[in-house]
């Protein structure tokens, strides 16, 4: 299909519906790819019936940016086990961007960093919070002593809530610089 034909379809459907269809298409493509490598199997009857017995669905919002798209978090015995989009959310209307679609992975990912790590001789080593804070603050203070407070630029996170943003701003002021901005600006 040509670019012009795609544009025409996109205009007729509207951006949100077009993106939904595009993601379904990508999903089908990915599913076919996995199926061809035997990495997927059919769900068992029990799994289809209810893979998480006794779970509750909790309406919440994606915390990654200030759009605040709706998320339905399925929770079983206090553990977040599955994520779905909130179809009736007034802002996101049943869709997410690629960051929010897998918010659950921020919690459950095996790659999630849960403690400070330091690279020593090319290998990551676990260190204590005390050691991490002391080493980082020593280096920061040395840089400031040698170059002045404007040596640093503070970039706030789109994940900050109001209180975190407040403390972050205070921290930059205490450090002595106005070099502070939001990460989205870069
Ligand atoms: S799903 Fe994407 S756009 Fe929506 S709040 Fe999360 S990061 Fe922001």
Automatic annotation (TrEMBL):
SUPFAM superfamilies: Formate dehydrogenase/DMSO reductase, domains 1-3
PROSITE patterns assigned: 4FE4S_MOW_BIS_MGD, TAT
Pfam families assigned to the protein according to its UniProt record, in alphabetical order: Molybdop_Fe4S4 (PF04879), Molybdopterin (PF00384)
Gene Ontology cellular component terms for the protein in this record: cell envelope
Swiss-Prot/TrEMBL cofactor(s): [4Fe-4S] cluster
Main location: other
UniProt entry keywords in alphabetical sequence: 4Fe-4S, Iron, Iron-sulfur, Metal-binding, Oxidoreductase
Location(s) in or outside the cell: Cell envelope
The organism's taxonomic lineage, starting at the top: Bacteria, Pseudomonadati, Campylobacterota, Epsilonproteobacteria, Campylobacterales
KW NAD (keyword) present: no
UniProt record, GO biological process: anaerobic respiration
Protein name per the record: 4Fe-4S Mo/W bis-MGD-type domain-containing protein
Family in the record: Belongs to the prokaryotic molybdopterin-containing oxidoreductase family.
Organism: Malaciobacter molluscorum LMG 25693
Gene Ontology molecular function terms on file: 4 iron, 4 sulfur cluster binding; electron transfer activity; molybdenum ion binding; oxidoreductase activity
4Fe-4S Mo/W bis-MGD-type domain ranges (all copies): 55-111
């Amino acid at each position: 299909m040509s670019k012009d034909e795609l544009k025409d379809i996109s205009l007729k459907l509207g951006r949100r519906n077009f993106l939904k269809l595009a993601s379904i298409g990508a999903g089908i493509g990915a599913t076919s790819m996995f199926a061809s490598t035997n990495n997927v199997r059919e769900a068992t009857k029990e799994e289809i019936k209810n893979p998480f017995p006794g779970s509750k669905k909790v309406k919440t919002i994606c915390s990654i940016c200030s759009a605040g798209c709706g998320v339905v978090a399925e929770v079983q015995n206090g553990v977040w086990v599955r994520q779905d989009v909130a179809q009736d959310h007034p802002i996101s209307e049943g869709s997410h961007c690629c960051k929010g679609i897998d918010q659950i992975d921020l919690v459950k990912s095996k790659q999630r960093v849960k403690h400070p790590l330091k690279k020593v001789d090319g290998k990551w080593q676990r260190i204590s919070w005390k050691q991490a804070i002391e080493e980082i603050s020593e280096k920061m203070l040395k840089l400031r002593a040698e170059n002045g407070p404007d040596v640093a630029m503070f970039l706030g996170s789109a994940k900050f809530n109001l209180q975190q943003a407040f403390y972050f701003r205070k921290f930059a002021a205490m450090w002595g610089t106005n070099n502070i901005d939001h990460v989205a600006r870069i």
